[in-house]
Amino acid sequence: MAFPVPIPFVSHLGFELSRWADGEAEIRFDPAPEHLNSFQVVHGGATMTLLDVAMAHAARSIQQDMGCVTIEMKTSFMQAAKGSLTARGRLLHRTATMAFTEGQVFDTSGRLCAHATGTFKFVKRLPVGGKDVHALNRSGIEGAQGISTD
């Protein structure tokens, strides 16, 4: 199953969405050698990205026309993650603007490797190809509170 919107970093890592419905998401990840740390296990940053994406998709699965951004995330690593990984995200609670989620990462043996909780804010999706980016209003911050804009 394809991700509902293109996410270049997720594509680069090779994540595969296998479930996205009813407040749940499941994503598979087959780490390459460049995703490992010096101990030759999956780098914690790659594991955290996997959890972040799984939890965000669990949140978005109930309102697919909205995007969401990570507000806060806490991750606990139980044991080293080796080989192919599966992340499962689950929506715990939702308000009009926020989603509270949890996620887990399992290795091929079904061992729990990491657990996370995350808070996400729902945001309107931008039109495809539309970047709503504006130049920083530098004149508004120059000299304020001793901030240098050099």
Describe this structure in words.
β4 and β5 form a beta hairpin. Helices cover 15% and strands 37% of the residues. The chain is built from two helices and six strands, in the order αββαββββ. It has one domain (8-146): Hotdog Thioesterase (Thiol Ester Dehydrase, Chain A). With 150 residues, it is α+β, with helices and mostly antiparallel strands. The chain has a six-stranded antiparallel β-sheet with strand order 1-2-4-5-6-3, with helices on one face. The longest helix has 17 residues, at 44-60.
Keywords:
alpha+beta; 15% helix; 6-stranded antiparallel sheet; 6 strands; 150 residues; 2 helices; disordered C terminus; Thiol Ester Dehydrase, Chain A
Adjacency order of strands in the biggest sheet: 1-2-4-5-6-3
How would you state the average pLDDT, rounded? 89
Which oligomeric form is depicted?
A: single chain
Would you identify the CATH architecture?
Answer: Roll
Shape: globular
| CATH homologous superfamily (4th level) name | Hotdog Thioesterase
Question: Which structural class do you get from the secondary structure elements?
Answer: alpha+beta
Helices and strands, in N-to-C order? HEEHEEEE
**CATH class category name:** Alpha Beta
Tally the helices. 2
- Share of helix, binned: 10-25%
Number of E strands: 6
Radius of gyration: 18 Å
Question: Strand percentage, roughly?
Answer: 35-45%
Stated plainly, the CATH topology is called Thiol Ester Dehydrase, Chain A
**Mind summarizing the main beta sheet?**
6 strands, antiparallel
Give the N-terminus to C-terminus distance in angstroms: 46 Å
Q: Which blocks of ≥5 consecutive residues have pLDDT under 50?
A: 133-138, 140-144, 146-150
Number of domains: 1
